[in-house]
Amino acid sequence: MKRRIKAVLNFPPVSFVADVVSLYFSRRVNRSAAQLAYFLTLTFFPILICVSAFLSRIDFSLIRLLDDAKPLLPEGVELIFRDYLGYLDNNFSNAMLIAGIFLTLLFASAAIRGLVAFMSELFGREPDVSLRSIVTSVLFAAFLLFTIYLSLAVLITGNWFFHSIEALVGISDLVARFGFWQWLKYLLLLCIVFLFILLLYRFTAPTRNPYPPIVPGALLASVALAGSSIVFAAVVSSSTRYSLVYGSLASVIIMLVWLYLCGNVLILGNVVNYVIWCRKNKRPI
Description:
Layout: H1 2-10, H2 12-26, H3 29-57, H4 62-69, H5 75-91, H6 94-122, H7 131-169, H8 174-177, H9 181-204, H10 215-238, H11 242-246, H12 250-280
């Protein structure tokens, strides 16, 4: 019996998962994920200001955007989106936009520096606290904002593009005929998220040889982010009693749990890269 258990534990996929789980607890991934969720929460509302400004420039319906993104958003988060974007729609100003961009860069760069510090510790490096690292994190925060805009463009331009052709050419039901775009745009959105995570992992990986892999963890993290968000949204939507526990704070709690879940997935993707790196170079975990 003991031999069978030992054989199962030594089976490569099982031992690999065991190493990832061991690192999750020994390196306190949950603590880093909580820190990341905190800064993402601070970034959340300034980003919505920037999103509102972007959508107002192209005269696009916020409600239609939320309908397109509904499969990926938990119910409580969607309610926060609707309420806050509705407020911004009636009270928007250029000063608010400037403040939104500044706070997005400030808090998002802090989140990235926290993530970089964890990855440095994971790979046995000293965290870089130089001015260069601060500037780089701000640039990465700007790239995050660009990624969000690009993702919005993917969500928006499908039906918007076909509706424009309908009005121009006079062909009816064009959007219905090209309904495959509804699925294709989510695939493109997944590719954009994968590219962002790939660059983020490259930025946080050691620069010395041998270079750790980044593609497996980035691919796993991007798919897991989409899958876990969909599952979490479905679980929240099927539950009708969570508001009895948290009352009026239910939507905020759901958002925090969702961001904490995303933080765990994002960090675990690089933990997977680290385990692959250690096994390839025969290093101790």
